[in-house]
User: Fold Peroxidase from Streptomyces avermitilis.
Amino acid sequence: MTETGRHEQQYERYEGGSPEAERQVFERLAREIMEVQVKNQRAQGGGISRTFHAKAPLAVENARLRFHDDLPEALRVGFAQPGADYPATVRLSNASGVQQGDGSPDLRGAAVRVRVSEDESHDLLATSHPVSHARDAREFVAFAKAMAGARSPLQKAFGLFVKLPLAVGLGTANRMRRNVQAAARHTVDSLASETYWSRGAILWGEAGPVRYLLRPAPGSPPPLPCDPNDPDFLHRELAQRLARTDIAFDLCVQRFVDERRTPVEDASVEWQEAIAPAQPIARLTIPGQDLDDAKARTVARRIEDLAFNPWHTTDDFRPLGNINRARKAAYGASSAHRLGLRFSTAEPWQNRLLTPPAGAAFGLLNRVLPWHRLPLRLSLLNLVFLRKALRRFNLIDTEPREAPPKAQPVPEPIPERLRTERSYDGSYDDLSEPGMGAVGAAFGRNVTPDYRPDLFDTPNPVTVSRRLLYRESFQPATSLNILAAAWIQFQVHDWVNHRRHRPGGRTVEVPLPPGSGDWHNTPGGPPENVMRFAENEGLELPGDRPPILFGNVASHWWDGSEVYGEDEQTARFLREPDGGARLRLEDGHLPGGTNGIPLTGFSESWWMGLSAMHTLFAREHNAVCDALRAEYPSMSEERIYRTARLVVSALIAKIHTVEWTPAILATEAIDIGLHTNWQGPPRNWLNKLGLWLFEAHSLTGIPGTRPDHHGVPYSLTEDFVTVYRMHPLIPDDYELREHHFGQRLETVGFLDIQGGAAEAKIRKTGLANTLYSFGIAHPGAITLHNFPRSLQQFERDGEIIDLSVVDLVRTRRRGVPRYNDFRAGLHKKRIRSFEELTRNAETLARLKEVYRSVDEVDTMVGLLAENPPAGFGFSDTAFRIFILMATRRLQSDRFLTVDYRPEVYTPLGIDWVEKGGMNSVILRHCPELASLMPRRASAFAPWRTVQPAANGGPPDNGGPGDNG
Assistant:
């Protein structure tokens, strides 16, 4: 074991018994620190300030730190070498989180950033009292919350004598109060005359733990006379001092003696100099200068935007102890909040007060009456509380997190253009955590995984498919058209994609049940008694955790990546030559690829319906580009492209939210709820009162709010992937018709318009005729016995697969719980018999034949078997994932919330989204379809059918295509 490892093991004890348990505590405390900042902001007005040390009488970046030539051998570690001299940034501050006059009783602080190289810096933070008022991070945050927003003596007294004892107990509050009052009673005449002690210990290489302090160098002049009633007298004193001479501090270290007298975990115990002498090792010098000229003021403003953190260091100088370990998360969250990179959404008092009793009441009510059988306004409120419960219990972060915290360099500045543009791979959507939701980020969970390798083949997924999924006769969804089926695949390709091993790599083998015949796993391959298909590539997990974590090959954000691609190379390749803003098209269609499948952002599982969607929105992108160029002639082609992508992506999100989803969940409550998501509630005082009482953030519509991850970093989930397995929507055969006279062009099977055949077919048929043909035809109902036959034996990537078997196997192997456990995880009552699942006698008999008990039923089978609420196109259990994730996809995305604004999208862009919809997109590119589309319904509802004339017009066996 390394020396560092021994120190960690010997001196540090993790709260909760493990680094991961402690990390989760610290993440919650970090969110509470952000709430403190909001309260301080309200108290003083203006923007968000530092949680503590809000006011800085001095901020300079031309200081120097020089180590002494006689630095002891034991302390020569890393950058600490005899005679080493480094530039440093220094910020001296008042400790309060509320800016107040310099004469107010307060502690003072010092923050020093020592710049060793471009890749290495060390942040040293210290406060003007030798001991912390808090023993650990919990106490520290409790004190911050008690004092949040306190400005007057009465408010401060209330915080110290009432709020703090209620939070930590009377004895602890008394000890904390004595420390704070002792420090605050100290009269400060000059920040140059103060001594500053580190809060907690740091590692000093093989020398072990130390605490450090900055004390005025010997011979420092006394404070200069200043008016203590001047609210800025500390700054004026420093300005006068530096106008005459330098300011110097000695950097001293106190070395660890033993855990009783010099504890690492308890920051409230002073390391007394009689026990651990303070040994000078370096000199910090702030050179004489003018603090009030324009250059100095610019420097001070720049330093105010810096984020100091003791974890900006190297492993040799790693911070130690509970408070220090908490500081990485807390300081990171606080600085990101202050700089507008992370957001805190406080719950209004009335929501906090009324939510628990109202939520409990609806929970009791739902035991006898589900939400969808309640009167409209009650059902809407019921959904509010159901979503609140799901947000609280069903957002599970799976991404491996850093625990314990590790030292890191000062983060690179955020690329300026990514503040107003989407990145290619989804990074920097959340500016405080650039990798959140980016390509490669792990799928999260809504229900705790249940990984059962012993049940991978029980019951045999081939048997399940053939007895319960196989389409014996087509069951249509008569309230929709096939455009709805194409649309959801278009969306899923934007949201989720699991990487598969290449053909010939790792495979899954599913044995065929006895008597079921042979299977060909490759075109022209030999008959086999197993189905074989490529395995998903998982992410490695530490320890003995099961292999159920997968990265998303797509970005998790709603960013139009299926149109634009997931990386810069693809995105630029799809654009017109020479950096043009428009996407490449050939006679209005997508450019062809070498394999017959066109060039676009995502082209797997390609068929004619997908081609229609991609073609339509590639044209829409180009239309936005043309409009932007005409409206803003000075805008560069790159800016036009980036803005058009924002506009088209937001328009797609809006269409899905307020058009597709209400079409497939055709109830008034869902229609109102989803329109509320986008544009706020109806102009009805009762609806607005209900939301004000129970969920006030919904009063504006999500684009009018701030990003909110609801306590868990954003990702899409494996459960979300499971409920969006909607392959029954795909028919097996299609009739292509001409829209002018209604004549049949040809009848084709799905395999005739799939893969490389799709693009030739849509070019021959024409986009307008294709949209019309799909608009007048129904998709399949999302139910059992309706899985497309065409998808049960088709070629993909050189394999012949049965997609229904693949869907079953993937869900099992990814640890998605079986149906009954899935229901229970989403707060629905478990079913006790097959009869509770279906009323269909034939289906009931087959379920009993295939499964030994209801607890064995596959999630996909249960979701398809369940009787949905009236008007619903899928089950109420699946809907629970939907109501949780539908708002989350909008609310986590800053480009659909705080940065959904004219300054980012342009006024034209915002107007394009707000006035646009699926109907307007179709009619912009195929205006000849205007008379055929629904008048008062979504474009995903059945269109008007043109009746062929009895005499005249083109013959029934053919007709012209079009390039429209």
Q: What stands out?
A: The mean pLDDT is 92. Residues 464 and 536 are 21 Å apart (CA to CA).
